[in-house]
Design goal:
single chain; 153 residues; mainly beta; Immunoglobulin-like; 2 domains; four-stranded antiparallel sheet; three-stranded antiparallel sheet; 2 helices; 9 strands; 12% helix
């Protein structure tokens, strides 16, 4: 059985590498296939958390360095679509980059909305604060059962 090495702390020269079995690595990849697929294709994709409460769905995306005007959020039928772009880093006479680790370029994320999500755009809301985009999509509220009076004739 072949093992992949995953280095901790000091990188490749660390004397205590942690061994990871290929099956564990593949399972980890499956948990976030969309973002990892983008990395393999040479694109970047911001990470997202999707949560549910009794009343709504909540999508949270980390977008540090973005301005809200650089992000587009749309709901169409059963899809939530988030698009944006960060300009490529340009060198100048005053600034020469020695290392660039931040991701640049365009991204697009889409999320399939469950059948109980209210797909009317007016019902959804989005807030951008401290580099985090928070999108709330309410659920269709099931009306409570009510007693129907029976009349006699």
């Amino acid at each position: 059985m072949t093992l992949f090495q995953q280095w901790k702390r000091g990188g490749r020269n660390d004397p205590e590498p942690r061994m990871v079995a290929p099956l564990e690595w593949l399972r980890a990849m499956e948990r976030d296939d969309t973002a990892n697929q983008a990395l393999f294709e040479g694109r970047w994709m911001p990470r997202a958390d999707v949560a549910e409460t009794a009343r709504e769905y909540l999508v949270t995306m980390e977008l540090p360095g973005f301005d809200p005007s650089e992000v587009d959020v749309r709901i169409t039928d059963d899809q939530l679509l988030v698009r944006g772009a960060r300009a490529e880093t340009a060198e100048s006479e005053e600034r020469r980059y020695l290392r660039i680790e931040t991701s640049r370029g365009a991204f697009e994320r889409s999320f399939e909305l469950p059948s109980d999500a209210l797909s009317e755009t007016e019902a959804a809301s989005a807030m951008f604060r401290n580099g985090v985009l928070e999108i709330r999509v309410p659920k269709v509220q099931q009306s409570a059962a009510r007693k129907v009076p029976i009349r006699s004739m």
